[in-house]
Amino acid sequence: MRKRAAILLTLLASAAITGRAQFINAYVTGGAITSQIEGDELKGFNRWWFTGGVGAFVRFDQEGTWSMSVEADYAGRGVYNNLHTSQNLYNIDMVLHYVDIPVTVFFKDPFGGLRIGLGPVYGRLVQQPHDTIQCRPSYFFPDTTDMAFLKNDLSLAGELRFTIWNNLQLSVRYQHSLFPVKKGWTFTEGEHQWQNDCYNQSVMFRLIWQFGEPERSNHKRSQAHKPHSGNKPKVTVRRRR
């Protein structure tokens, strides 16, 4: 994993040099994540956990119209269901602990300052779940003898960022696995059995603190370079007699 992180950081540095990036800023993140596992026969983003990490942000021009970020984040994903508060058919409380490395390319709205990003995310499962599942008798239930998930998760993420105040930003990121994180999870209902491939789905709500000078908006920058348009002093010309 360290080798992959080093490769990604090297690619970021190369892109900054070739793209003549003028601004590079480090930042820290922290917030909440809600998730579900597609394929577990349950519905709803009911698994809440926390997330946080560090990142580097590169603007490729002075206005920051195009930019890129690379991060190293912790994210707790999984699934949660309580029989007493839902109509689903089994109890589960499971957390999958991931270290994510997202690479995101952003486009900045020149009017509102909203950044829209898209990019891949490599996730490494650092701790397998050790939770148990309780099922109602006579209903369908998943196979609990094999709770192992695949260690690698390649996802696609879309992200929105905007500045709240000075160096403080708000980020919302939606992420979905491109390949199964668990293949062929077996479910049983009476004599009937079927298998589902499982995918991670998550939504992150994060606060970002970016180090360095706060970024100026395009409007403020254009006003700063606009010449003064006030009343010009009158010039009196005297005629010779």
In brief:
The protein has 241 residues and is mostly beta strands. It is built from two helices and eleven strands, in the order H-E-E-E-E-E-E-E-E-E-E-E-H. Strands 1-2-3-4-5-8-9-11 form an eight-stranded antiparallel beta barrel.
Key phrases:
10% helix, 8-stranded antiparallel barrel, mainly beta, 241 residues
Describe this structure in words.
The structure is a single chain. With about 240 residues, the chain is mainly β. About 10% of the residues lie in helices and about 55% in strands. It contains two helices and eleven strands. It has an eight-stranded antiparallel β-barrel with strand order 1-2-3-4-5-8-9-11. A hairpin with an 8-residue loop joins β1 (about 25-40) and β2 (about 45-60). Residues about 15-20 and about 220-225 have low confidence and may be disordered.
Explain the layout of strands and helices.
Elements: H1 2-18, E1 23-38, E2 47-59, E3 66-81, E4 90-108, E5 115-127, E6 133-135, E7 141-142, E8 152-165, E9 168-177, E10 182-189, E11 192-210, H2 218-225
Antiparallel strand pairs: 1-2, 1-11, 2-3, 3-4, 4-5, 4-6, 5-8, 7-10, 8-9, 9-11, 10-11
Count of DSSP-assigned helices: 2
Question: What's the overall geometry?
Answer: elongated
Major sheet size, sense and barrel closure: 8 strands, antiparallel, barrel
Write the H/E string, N to C.
HEEEEEEEEEEEH
Termini separation (Å)? 90 Å
What is the total tally of β strands? 11
Strand composition percent: over 45%
Helix content: 10-25%
Residue windows where pLDDT falls under 50 for at least 5 positions: 15-21, 219-226
